[in-house]
Structure formats: structure tokens, C-alpha cells
Write the C-alpha cells for this entry.
Amino acid sequence: MKIATWNINGIKARLPNLERWLIEASPDIACLQEIKSVDENFPSELFEEMGYNVAVHGQKSFNGVAILSKKPLDEVIKGLPGDEEDDQARYLEAVISTDNGALRVASIYLPNGNPVDSPKYPYKLDWMARLKAHAETLLAYEEPLVLAGDYNIIPTDLDVYDASKWVEDALFLPQSRAAYHEILNLGLTSAFEACHNQPHSYTFWDYQRGSWQKDHGIRIDHLLLSPQATDRLISCSIDRPTRGWEKPSDHVPVTIELDV
DNA sequence: ATGACCTGTTTAACAGGA
């Protein structure tokens, strides 16, 4: 089973590319971020015609996450638990039936956090603390679990073209990376790192400054797996060519194959 | 030497992204 994550940066602008990619890559489950749409304007029927079940957690203009799944969605949870006041649509979780039992998948759009001296940075750290608490709850189920998404975290200096340019950035500050590693240290495995030791394998290139042409990228999209999912991990790949398509997202898909 | 973009919305400049 192929499970992918992709920050599409707007469903309306990305629909042609998303359709093409769904046909060519044919993921069984696609976790999408930054749909930038309310639920009613998300083209769910189109994806249903392509054979997907659809769960959407959208909001107007910004953020928004979705899950497309060829297998039925048994249970859907919208929003990250832990703060009733938080109205940003950044977390969607679903339990999916497979031939070998239940698989739990989340589509995550972790806050960017810049600028660091604004309330956005404490919001990021608070959100990560909530994600850690929730991940702890989910890990206790001892089932295959995939927490996939745009984490807005550069894990190490080998995941950026020039670390010195990012030391003050919310994606790379020691405190941000420490919060990310706290989540990993609960017992999760980063799929890409389990499959590869190739440094400078990026998933995002800025639209500005010719970043794509110069390969000035960062690796910020991750799939974190529970032990039960890690046991079944076959491969992980970054779909780099999509960044070179017409009207690309600034992120590319990351896909894992699980033996489930 | 430096900067160079894209998206959605309020359709004309913004806000937000990373």
C-alpha cells in the first residue's frame, strides 16, 4: 500500500497537477496540506469518481488538510486535540480498513512559526506539544500509525542547502528541532531516514530566488511511523520531478510503501 | 552585487507562506 503526503499549496491552483499525479503515482492514501479551501469548495466528487474516499478539514483562504483513500474511512477526527480555542485547520486523522486490519493515518500541517519574535512562534511550539501529547495517546494503541505531513521542521543541517542561512529561522532553531525530536523519541521512526542516508534530499524549494534551479531546498515533509508501521515499511521516496511541472506546488510528494 | 514568487481574496493591493 502506497501512502503519500503532499502540501499542494491551494487546491484550486493545483487541481490539474494533483489529478495528473494521482493517476501517475496512484497512491492508496494521499494526505494533502494547504488546500486553502472550505470543505464545500473542495472537489470531493471528482476524487470520488477517481475511486477515492474523501475526508476534508478546510477553512477559508488558509491552511486546510484532506485525506484521500481508496479503502474506506472508518473513523475521521478533525482538529488536533488539546486546545478548543485553536480554529486553524491543520490536523485530520482517519482510521482506514486494510486487508490486514486497521491503519491510522493523519494529515498534518504544522505551523511555520515565523517570524520568531511574533506570537506565531509560541503557537508553533504549543502546537508541537499538543501533537506530542496526542502521538503518545495514539502510540498506546499499538497499531500501524502514519503521521504524515508538512512539519515545517528541518531535522538536521544535512537537510538544508546552507544551514548557516537558517539558524535564526523557526524551521531550524534548536528549540524547534528539539520539539520535533521529542515527538520522534516517543518511539516513532522517520520513514525517509529509515530508508536512506542520502543528505540534501529536499521536499521544498521556495518560489523565489531561483531556489529550484539552484537546488536550494529544504526537507520539511515527513512521515513518522509507529513501530507496527515501521515493521511493514518497504520503501520511501521523494517525488522530485513534480517540482519541475507547470504551475508546481513549492512542495513535492513524499511516498512510502507499507506491506499492509 | 542584489533580487528575482505564488495563492486567495476584498479584484487592487494585501496577508501569508518558508
